[in-house]
Design brief:
- With about 140 residues, the chain is of the alpha+beta class.
- The chain has a domain of about 100 residues.
- The protein is about 40% helix and about 20% strand.
- The protein has 4 helices and 8 strands; from the N terminus they run H-E-H-E-E-E-E-E-E-E-H-H.
């Protein structure tokens, strides 16, 4: 007589969808809170141009995330962006840019070359009278 095998695919392991959804929400909330707690924070308007210039000088590509773990990024009930430097992450650590104006947060959600726009707006291009860079729509659905 063979003993009953409990393993992958057995009814004891399969969870009902409600249970899965409850655990998924719990874990994504924990991951979100850990990220908010551990990543260094900087004020958006004061630091975004310097951070972009540093990332580009190191040969990286700046990327701004408006969502993390399926939730919009907020810090102290204000919009925030997670800045990551792809290609130079070891030399340019990621930061959480806080106090992001609503229109700039929307740019990060809707467009893929947002860093060029932020550099133009906060890096002096706007004051010098340069035309704004063209913005390319993101394929992400938000």
């Amino acid at each position: 007589m063979m003993p009953e095998v409990v393993g992958f695919g057995s009814p004891e392991i399969i969870q009902p969808p409600e249970e899965y959804e409850r655990w998924r929400r719990k874990w994504t909330a924990a991951i979100y809170e850990l990220m908010i707690e551990r990543v260094p924070k900087r004020d958006f308007e004061k630091h975004v141009a310097g951070w972009i210039n540093r990332c580009r000088a190191e040969g990286g590509v700046p990327r701004f995330q408006a969502f993390y773990a399926g939730r919009p990024l907020k810090y102290e009930d204000r919009p925030a962006l997670l800045a990551t430097c792809y290609g130079a992450a070891e030399r340019v650590p990621r930061v959480l840019l806080t106090n992001v104006p609503e229109d700039d947060w929307s740019v990060a959600v809707l467009f893929v070359n947002d860093w060029e726009y932020f550099l133009w707006k906060y890096g002096g291009g706007k004051e010098r009278g340069e035309p704004p860079p063209p913005l390319y729509r993101s394929r992400r659905r938000r």
